[in-house]
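Q: I'm writing a short explainer about Flavin oxidoreductase for a general audience and would like to include a description of its predicted shape. Could you first generate the structure from this sequence?
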Amino acid sequence: MDSRIFRDAMGRFATGVTVVTTQVDDETHGMTANAFMSVSLDPKLVTISIDHNAKMYSQIKQSQQFAVSILSDEQMDVSMHFAGQKENPAAVQFDFVSGIPVIRDALTAVVCNVIEFYEVGDHTLFIGEVLEIKLTDGNPLAFFGGKYGSYQPV
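A: Of course. Here's the predicted structure. Afterward I'll give you a sentence or two in plain language.
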């Protein structure tokens, strides 16, 4: 199967947009990701999927912590910055929750300790035990077919 067809097919699944962050040696690192999901309520666990070639892969392995900030529909510039699509450091502001950087004004920030990781294909699934959650009001930034959009309730 052609890799482009697979990517196009997976792009037909509408997702929210997140920025995964961590801190190594007092330096904050982040990347845009949509490979995020809830795993368990008891204990509270989430997972993220990180490409082995991404800088974030070694940073999370080193820090053993990460945060997932679910972006609002007003934070497309933040997503584009961390996706390497548009340099806009002024759009990025951090808060710290349990010592981990999170995106300021994100709809949700989920802060985790890595408890397991599994190498699967060209990615690693990092399982995080949720330490703390921060919630903010707003509407989510959506992603579908390689394009940003907004959520429209029916």
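A: For your explainer, you could say: The first strand starts at residue 15 and ends at 16.
Q: Perfect, that's easy to follow.
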